[in-house]
Amino acid sequence: MLITQKHFFWKLSLLVLLFAGVFSTANAQGEGANFRVHDPVMIRQGGTYYLFATGPGIAVWSSPDMKSWSRQKAVFDSPPQWAVDAIPGFKGHIWAPDISYHNGTYYLYYSVSAFGKNTSAIGLATNPTLDPKSPDYKWTDHGKVVQSVPGRDLWNAIDPNLIKDEKGQPWLTFGSFWGGMKLVKMDNDLKKPAQPEEWYTLARRPREWSTHDTLAGSAAIEAPFLFKKGDYYYLFVSYDYCCRGVNSTYKMVVGRSKDIHGPYLNRDGEQMLEGKASLLLEGDEAWYGVGHNSVYTFDNTDYLVFHAYAAAEEGRPKLRIEKLRWDAQGWPQVALEQ
Length: 338
Known about the structure:
338 residues; four-stranded antiparallel beta sheet
């Protein structure tokens, strides 16, 4: 069974972070974007931006301007019991959340997973407000949405992202490695797949079968995010390896389709199902790997939110927020600050 590199290196990096004390009170306040973060997603309520990311109980920050960030209380004080029961060895370190707002409620999908297996699941928590000072502030956990089981599923239930199509129908995309990026039609309550179930594969990378089963080789793909712009749905994914500090090779690629189900094509008309995608951003001498992105529109400006491994800080993962431009053919472009 293929072992995801994210699983191994996240466990290793978590131990390093704990010994370094980065979860201490002294580091709770971020100066600018100068704090460790993995898999960031963002939303705005009123005049405040809220950032959710991988971490114990789901890490949360807030900011008035997307520049100065303050650490907030985690979403969960203790691991959700359903996740402890469903995922052997789960201790409460939750991965890759996704935040969105629908019908007066904030929906926060999140990932839980066993080490080195596709024993993984996506859960859902909701809140009527993100303002912790509001008397209505309370996270309600709704438990498991989808789960992957070794021997049954050739896909991994992590890295969720919710989107509604042009008809208002909700869909959840997710996945990593193995069989690639999945899309499932959701029930209107957003808590479970619709019946009868409707599934699609959006992107994958061909696997070199000469590679040992415990290694992904050239088949590393994860972190799907769908964004509607004009006539197209844009599918952003991350290729190669995160979580290796100075040796991280993460990069962001993209394809697009006029149909949410696909096929998603690159600039040359080649399919993401065949491992073909257009490069959006890769590492350089200042930032090693860059990836696990989300995309948002605030005040008529599109933003790319992601984490990057800082060369100046021995490959530590940092928050990056960059503006997206669109070329004459409708493809996204970004210039990384140095």
